[in-house]
Amino acid sequence: MPxxxxxxxxxxxxxxxxRQARGRAYAPYSNYPVGAAVLDESGRIHAGCNVENAAYPxxxxxxxxxxxxxxxxxxxxxxxxxxxxxxxxGNWITPCGGCRQKLRxxxxxxxxxxxxxxxxxxxxxxxxxxxxxxxxxxHIRAN
Length: 143
Ligand code: THU
Description:
5 helices, single chain, five-stranded mixed beta sheet, binds tetrahydrodeoxyuridine, 25% strand
């Protein structure tokens, strides 16, 4: 049974990694830098930032970049994700729809998705809350 608890020190490490990644974001068009950090099944942390493009739809979200780093490092299961945006006080960042689906590929319904800003921690959700009744790898394997 996977462990989906997030200790205070793991959360702090995710926060540090995501904030550092946000500092490297390339977001000249939206001026909305984002950093994300994923905790994998081995307890390792993988970070990513958004990378925008003059051809706007070609931009990459921070969560997608963090998942790519996880896969490259051999990680295959996301246990927790922390996302740092600019919003706080009721306007907290949560992963976009496309990133929720990307997280679904490597995360169980209990995957923790923690929102944060540069200044504070925000709400915590599970993947099941943000992407209910989702389509995933099990549907393909059922064929
Ligand atoms: N963005 C992310 O990187 N992650 C999110 O969860 C929401 C949005 C990026 C995409 C774009 O570069 C900028 O934030 C504004 O939408």
